[in-house]
Every structure is written in structure tokens, then in C-alpha cells.
Amino acid sequence: MASARHGVREAPGGLALLQELLNTRAPMAYGTDLLVTADDAQPWLTEALNTWSRVSGLPAPTLLISSSDLRSLRRLRTTFENVTLAGGNQGPEGALPPADVPVSLVPDADGWVRIVPTGRGTRWLASALWAEALLAQQAGIWPRLKLCNNFECRAAFFDTSRNNSGVWHDVSTCGNTANLRAFRERRRLMGGSGALPPRPTVQGPPSLI
């Protein structure tokens, strides 16, 4: 799955499908963009939809990807990147365009109304993704789906910190990289070389000889 390539915690429930779409972008240091060719996109989408169907309890159609579908999926990914960033006040200025996708409201045997995706092809997928975004907002977990603050990474991760303060998908990689970059920039502005500060040396006791 796409999110596993980035080594991130999977979002709960059906929100993982949206996270999967965001994480089809190439990992920072290796791998490929899964939405460039149908050979990469098809197995990813089939597995992602099977997982979504199992989690949601709803049937998922079999979607066969064409070249025009790849363009639609990439546009859809960009749209949800902007929506995710807007939730963290990092998105583009102004109102985002409307989703313009259909959904069905279906009551179950117990009278609970469910949001069921409708449509064909990538329109069905868009319907499912917007429905999951709405359900995540209603459940109060939407703000925890974030894009890594490292612009060279942008992995989508689910923030499990108590105060929802996470900004890196992995502090040991993207966090340290960003801190090192900031340090070197400060040194550059101060006229320094940008080298790492020397490690302090520990002086031993004076010799008695």
C-alpha cells in the first residue's frame, strides 16, 4: 500500500483511503509516483478499494484505470492536498472549489442513515473520498490527517500526539533534516560557513607529574 512506503501510521477506518491517495506521491528518497502509469496505479487502487470495502462494510466497484483516469486521479490528489493543508491553515488563499460529486443517503435495518458513494469510475472514487472526509470531520479526527512539513516529503500521516501538535511524518528523518537546514541558513545569514558546531571537549584534571 502507498502509506506503508512512507512508514506512517495508518489513519483509522475509511479515512485511510484518502490517506492512501495522498501517499501515492513518490517517497522522498526512493520509489515512484504511483499515479504516473496504469501498471503502478492499478494494483494500488485495487488493494486500496478492497481494504476500504472491508473496513467500511460497503461494496467497492472494480475500477480499471485508463490514461484519462490517471489524470483525474492526480487532479483529485492535488485537490485533497489543498483541502488537507487548508485544515491546518496552510492551504491556498480563498475558498476551495466545490466537490461536485453525488452520494446516496441509505438507511440501514436499524434506521441509521449511511453515506454511500455513487457514480462510475473515478467519479465513484471521488464520491467515496469526499464522503470519508465528511465522516472524519463529523467524528472530530479530520484535523489529525496532515501532510509532513518537509516540502520535499509531504507524506500524509495521522497525528496521534495528545495535543495534535505533530508536523513531521518522522521526526528522526524530516524533523532533523529541517533543523539542520534551518541551522545552516542561520549560519549563512550570520556569515558563517554553515558547518555543524564542534562538539565540546571535556578537559581532564591537571597532571600531577
Report the end-to-end length measured between terminal Cα atoms.
67 Å
CATH class: Mainly Alpha
Helix-strand string: HHHHEEHEEH
CATH architecture, by name, is Orthogonal Bundle
The description of the largest β-sheet is:
2 strands, antiparallel
Mean pLDDT reading: 84
Structural overview:
- InterPro entries: ABATE, ABATE_dom_sf, Znf_CGNR.
- By secondary structure, this protein is mainly α.
- It is 44% helix and 8% strand.
- Strands 1-2 form a two-stranded antiparallel sheet.
- The longest helix is centred in the middle third of the chain and has 21 residues, at 67-87.
- The radius of gyration is 22 Å and the shape is globular.
- Residues 200-209 have low confidence and may be disordered.
Features:
Jann2411-like fold, single chain, about 210 residues, mainly alpha, two-stranded antiparallel sheet, 6 helices, globular, about 45% helix
Topology:
Layout (H helix, E strand, L loop, with lengths): L1 H5 L8 H8 L15 H19 L10 H21 L15 E5 L5 E5 L3 H19 L5 E3 L8 E3 L12 H19 L20
Antiparallel strand pairs: 1-2, 3-4
Short description:
Helices cover 44% and strands 8% of the residues. The chain has 6 helices and 4 strands. A hairpin with an 8-residue loop joins β3 and β4.
